[in-house]
Structure formats: C-alpha cells, structure tokens
Amino acid sequence: MTPMMAQYAEWKALYPDCILLFRMGDFYEMFFEDARKASEVLDITLTARDAEKNIPMAGVPWHSVNSYLGKLVKAGFKAAICEQMGPPDGRTLVDRQVVRIVTPGTFVPEEAGTGGRLAAVAPAGKDIAAALLSAETGRLEAGVFPPSEAASLIASFAPEELLFPRGFDPAKRLPLVSGYFPISRPEDFFSPAQGGRWLAEHWGAATLASFGLDDGSPEAGCAAAALKYFSETQFGAVKHVRGVYPLRSREYLHLDVTTQRNLELLEDGGPSLLGALNSCRSPMGRRTLREWILRPLLDIKAINRRLDGVEALLENPGDRRGLRDLLGECRDVERAVARLGMNSGTPRDMGAIRDTLRLLPRILPLAAGGPLGEWTAGLPDFSGIGGELQLALEEELPRLKSAGAIIRPGYDAELDEWRRTGEGASAWLDEYLEKIREETGISRIKAGYNRVFGYYLEVGKAAAEKLPDGFIRKQTLVNAERFITPEMKAFEDRMNSATAEIERREEELYVRLVELVLERAEDLQALGRALATLDVLASLAETAREMGYTRPSVNDGFDLHIKNGRHPVVEKVLADSPFVPNSFSLERAARRIALITGPNMAGKSTYLRSAALLVIMAQMGSFIPAESAEIGLCDRVFTRIGARDDLARGSSTFMVEMLETANILHNVTDRSLVILDEVGRGTSTYDGMSIAWAVLEYLADGCGAEPRTLFATHYHELTCLEDRFSSVENLTMSVKEEDGRVFFLHRVAKGSADRSYGIEVARLAGLPAPVLRRAFELLQDFEKEDRGACFRKLNNAGKSPPGVRQLTLFKTDERAVVEELASLNPDSLTPFRALELLYKLREKSREVVYPEDNPSS
Q1: 415: closest CA among 353, 500, 487, 355?
Q2: pTM reported for the whole predicted model
Q3: Interatomic CA distance for residues 465 and 468, integer angstroms
Q4: Which CATH code for domain 258-382+520-547?
Q5: Topology of domain 553-764, per CATH?
Q6: Which helix (H) or strand (E) holds 372?
Q7: Local structure of residue 217 (DSSP, 8 states)
Q8: pLDDT single digits (tens) 632-677
Q9: CATH code of the domain occupying 117-251
Q10: What secondary structure letter does DSSP report for 558?
Q11: Cα separation of 93 and 804, whole Å?
Q12: What is the model's pLDDT at position 402?
C-alpha cells in the first residue's frame, strides 16, 4: 500500500459511516466501496487506481463539490471532507485532515434549496422533549409536549435527520412521523443537567434563564444534543446559532404528516398549496411561505396582523410592485450568514449580504408605517457594516476564496502596494527584453512563464550559441532553447514574494470582514426574517389580486361558515375552466357534522380538501378563494383520505387507514376540524360499513369533544343517522340525468344520494361494453333483494373463486377459539393432552377460516 493510500485508510477508519471525499489536487477522490456507492448516486465514472483494478476509484472536481454533496445527502449518505492542509512540495506526503462532516440534517446548499433541518427527541416521563434546529437559519427551538403534539410539531418541521437516545423507538412514541434519517446517541448525550450547563458555557451565559429555559430541563438536554451533534459535524463552526428559544406547540395549528400528504401542502413535482400561493421573489420568502403553510397560527391578533399586511399591499399596487421588484434583487441573507458561520461560506456569500444591505434605503420606505411597519420597525441600523462591505468588496466576486480578486483597490494601502509591485511585472519584462536584445544583438528573443521553470527567455537554436555567459539553459525544445538569468531569477523571487503577500493580506482582510459580519449575525438574521415576511405578504397579496381572493374573518368561536369557497390548487391548475364553488356551514350548536354522499367523480374529495385548505390559509394569514368566511379557530386539522400501503412499516392499506383513524379519534378536540373520506373502504363491505358507522357515532356522541367534521362515504345506510343525532346533517353531490346520460354538477346540496352512479363512472373510464352490461345486470339483482342474499347467491353460483374469502374483524366464532386458548394452563398439561388440544384447536380454527369446507356451516 502506498503512503497516500495508507493515509486514506487511516482517515476512513475514523469515519467508517461516511463516504470519505479525499482531496487530491483538483479532485476529491473516493475509493473502494465508497467509490461504488458514489458512482451510482452521483452518476459519475467508476475507474480504478491500480492496474489490477483492485482499488475502485471515483472523483468529483473540487470546485463543484457542493452540488455533489447535495445529491449524496439527499440519498441519505453522510460525507467526510478530507482536505489538503497545504500545497504539495513534491518531496513529502501532503498533510490531510477531515474538516467537515456533511449530513442530511446539517447540509446548507450553496444555492437556494431546502435542507439542513435537524430534530432531536428524548423521553420526558410520559411526554416527549423535542428540539428543532435549522442549520440554514441558525434557529434552535425546544420544548416538552405530549407525544401527539410532539409528532405534529416534528412533522411540520419536516427534519431530514432525527436524533434520539439509544433504546428510544421513534416509530412507537411518535406515530405517523416519517421521512427522516435516524441518528442514535447514548442516553447521557441528552442529559438535562449536563446539557443545560453545556449550552450556558457555549454561549457564555450564567444560566439559560435569559433564553426562557430552565438549566436542568429535558428540553435543555434535547437542545444541547441537537447543537452538539451539529457542532460535531462542523468541527465547532456553528457561530450563527446564537441562542435557544422556547418551542410552544399551542401557538400553531397542528398538521401531522398524514394531513400534510393528504392535503398536498408541499408536494414535490406536482400541484400543491405551496405552488398555488408561491409568487415570492426571494429564496428567503419561499422558505418562510413553506413555514407559514406548515405552521398556521392560533393567535387571532397575530393572524390579523398578517392579514392587515396582505390587505395593505393589495390596496397599494404601486408599493406592492415596487417592493416585489426590490425583493427580487435581495439575496438569501440567512443562508449566507449560516454558511459563513459554518466555515463553508464563499466570497459570494459576503457579496449576497452586501448587495442586500445596499437595497435597504429603497426597501424600508415602502414598508414604513402602517401594517407593514411592524415587520421592519425594530431593525437596527446597517449603514456601518453595509458601507464597510461596499468599500471593501469587489463588485464581481469569485465563487472560491482562493481565486483572489476579493478586495477592492483603494481599500487597504498595504495590499495596494503589493499589487503595484506585482502589476509592474509586465513593464519590467519589456525593459529587460530591450536591454538583452541590445546587449546580445539578438532581436528574436522573447520572455515567457510556466509553473515548472517560472520566468524564462526563449531564443532559436542558432541564436542560442551567441548568448554570453550568465545565461543558464533550463529546457531544450525542437527549434528553441530556454534560459534564465540571475536578474530574471531575482525578478521572479520578487514577483513570488509579491503574490504571496497579496494572498496573505487579502486573506487577512477577508477574514476580518467575515468576523465583522458574524458579529452582526443576529441582526442580519432578523433582517432576513423581516425581508422574508415582506416577500410572503406581497406574494399573498399578488395571488389574492390574481385569483380574486377575499379576506377571511377568524374568531375564537367554534363555527365554520364559508360562502362559495373554491379549492385553491384545483382552481389554479384548471385556470381555463370555471371552478364550481361550494359553501360550508358547520355549527357547534346545530349541525357540526356534514355526512356527504354521492358518486365518484362528483367532487366529494375536492369539497373535503377545500374546507381544510381554506382554514389553513386563513390561519396562516392569507386571503382565501371564497366570497366570505367566518372561521372559528382550529387547533388541529385531521384527515383520513385515500388508500395507500406503508410497506416500510409492514402495514397494509387497511391497517394504515385504521391507524390514521385511531390517531384522529384519540386526539380530537372541540376546536379540531376532521376530514374523513371513505372510512372502511379497505375491508369487506359489512366490516367497512360497521366501522364507518361506529366512527361517525363516536364523533357525534362519545368522543368527549365536539369537533367540526366532514365525513364522506359510499355507505348510504349511514344517512339515517341524521334522524338520530341533531349534530349530523346529510349533504350530497348534485347529479343531473338527461337522455340516459349522467352529468356531475360538482355542487353540494342538502339531502342524501339515492344512487352511486358507479356504472356511469365506469363507462366514462372506458370499461369494455360486456363488463358494463354484466355490471348493470348485477345491479338490478342487488336492487331487487337484500345485499346479503345477493352475495350468498353469487357465492353459491361460483362467481367468486372457491376457497377464497375476506376475513373480517368482527367474527363471534373466532372469539370462542381465542377464549379456549386463553383458558389453558400449559404447565398442567401432559404431552399427550397438549397434542390432543392442539389438534382440537386446529380443527376449530379451520372451521372459522374455511367455513365452505365444513358441511354443517
């Protein structure tokens, strides 16, 4: 093994769980299994370092490594960056050190994007301590919550990584949270007492009281764990994380991951609420809009402050356009500060801050006073640091610090002097060439430079013989010779010295400017949040103008009244087609449960989702697509929509449906909005109808709360519950029949559906004519006799495959088998008696599972 590969092996042994990116000149190389993985994920060529091809190798250019790192962490890998700590001298092995660990939850991309979200959780008695850390913004929040609230907060944060103590099972304690990469650490990593002390020392504080936390609290332990993990990956470079803030779950409407998915709030690559509302002009605005969607507010005053801002911009189109144009020129200040604080920043991050600060004198007057003034009134003065960056930094900055040309001429006298020395090279060479030509009489002599020999003189072979002593031959070419002279060597030394001094001084000045920026990190982060808020408010105002949205009224009541509401995403996608609006009315004192029946394709699911989306929009501070709206605060929006398997957790479609329904029934409150679509569809007909019936009864009278509920079903039998419960009202999707054709009107009306029109939907879907005819015949049979008799008739006629039947959840004969098994005492059984009972239980079990094989059944 070569010394270089031995060095690689030493570092790889220290970071076995990471893909090691090993700097070799202009490339980061990866070897062995790392190379194989990287070649697949990054779509780069897999080669070999040795002739025998025993050492697989793959590499990426050093100047574009960030884009490759983004792909690696997105695929769930961690990467260790092993840098050359000095230039190669050609004689000794280059010193290399791992300087940074890149993980999914701590990576901040160079360009706009999402990522860098880390959550830490730990048990706190029956509750869960949780900490949320955004590497991108430097914000760290922590608190203690019941498991369901913790799960909702984590789902809304959507972390890339979840950190937890060994022995803690997030899947059991945090139901329905998914999509993260798990990281476990020893229990003492989360110690409240040690964590509180560590945080206080880290920020140079006597206690955490100034941050609103108790030193020995579980949330302090969790916050410390998150920051320690982040600090480990960055080797201590986390200067932009300046404190920890209390995380208060009761400030936000909770949206668990199921609801986020069912409502398509943030769908990647498809229509979503984020896509429908987003016309933000800055990366900061887009990131903040995403946060607003996932964290709608529960404070009516805070909601109205946002609505006031949207209204002010909507009513002043000139200010709105001017503000949006200027915000479009702003750069991502928060991300730039984060990257500089993590020692991964570049001169362009400094330029991003400089460019944004010089826009402030034009932005702030447009946001001064009135509803917008609240967002900018508390900002400090940035003229000092803005002026310093303007004086110091070149207008066009390189992406890499090593490229130089960062500091403006005239900013520093010492740097200017060394630059003048370096810039005199061309004039000195011209004068020296003239002198040599006169002294030697050789007119065809020229000067050149390369990295191997430095500066040299080149003459033709014939003329080379005429050169006097003092010309030292360095290289022979086909038609020429290259020489150096003592004067040229001295000149080269001066130039190298000047170049080194320029690099040294420019590095000193750049580091001082970065420190100046990081001293103002908190102020700059506050500025970024203020500009992002203005961008979101202006975006919502622009969308309201374009789509004809109106201001909702949010109150502390329990009713929901929306007149002619529209689905914001569907309406935007179908821009060329008119959207049929529908109204919603759920009253706690009257009809708070709407039971909706009607055929497929008639618009039930769109109607359900519309209600939830309009509530979320209103409480995030947005105008909504409706004529008017009176919305009593919602604390949680629950949804059970659609069918899907959770193969990663080994759960079937029906099990997933029941888990989601159970989560709703256990956690619903008086202020919740519950959306249930086709409960019970994943099992047999009678089982499904029984479950749907029981769930609706429980919500109507039995769950200990009175949530507003929209319940869509194909089980028309449930509509009789309107007569039994005063809180239930039947609604149906209107259908028009004309000349044997069915037209879905997509309009909700009072009453219940008397037909499902499933065969008409099948016709629209293009099922073959023989299938449609047979379905119509069967439908007529079903309508003539009771459903159970029809099913028995079909089964006896051989229409279902023999020996195959759906097992239900509610069988009385199964219980007899289980009870007999539970009553046994294995310790008192002889081997013969145990075998006899085993055969007996087997026969009884077969009678339950295969009743068609039992003549008496």
Answers
A1: 500
A2: 0.81
A3: 8
A4: 1.10.1420.10
A5: Rossmann fold (3.40.50)
A6: helix 370-376
A7: S
A8: 999 999 998 865 544 344 456 778 788 888 888 888 999 999 999 9
A9: 3.30.420.110
A10: S
A11: 71
A12: 75
